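Predict the 3D structure for this chain.
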Amino acid sequence: MTTVAIIGALEEEVAHIADSLEDATHIAAASLDVVRGTLTAEDGGTINVAATVGGMGLVNAAATTQYLIDLCHPDAVIFSGIAGNLNKALHINDVVLGGTLRYLDTDMRLVGQWKPGTPDRQVTEFHSDPRLLAVAGAALERMGITHIAGTIASGNYFVDTPEQVNAVIEATGADAVEMEGAAVAHVAARNDVPALVIRALSDNADTDYEEFRTFDISAYADTAAKLTVDILRHL
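Done. Predicted structure below.
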């Protein structure tokens, strides 16, 4: 039996996942509504699932990840959300899997000495689990969604100008930019839990935040939930 913690960016996304679960129950704690239930895998096994919306920003993502790890001791953590596109070869609604995750505004010379780093080996970036990347890639192939396993930059500010885009690319070489992924991967690594970060591209990091807030991203929420459930069934 496998246990997986799911952190969604959207309430609609987690609601769709919850609708796929058997024996779903809710836990209200740590400012979260956590849905717990089971899912039948393709091989007939049972997947225990705990899913919640984690909130925006690095601290919210880190706190949610640690809470879910303490709550259900998962075998894997999956984060699914949207991001700004930085890769000219990609387009809106394509997906970047977080092969590499880098902080945008964090000096890793000191932070990187703490687990999973050591005083002798500083960590400068984090990575999604290779097996989870492979399962996600196969699911995206089945759904016909263009995707790459690339680099995602995570910071505590909204990137929406050409100057900011250029600075992010220069600093990190990222394919996408967002506000949570590196924190999820970081906390998961501290706890020795495999992690996967999935990002659908919602814009080209050129949309003013006030305009971005008005986007209807319900279609993404439905697609992301179907993708996440497909990944779970094939673990």
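The two ends are 10 Å apart (CA to CA).
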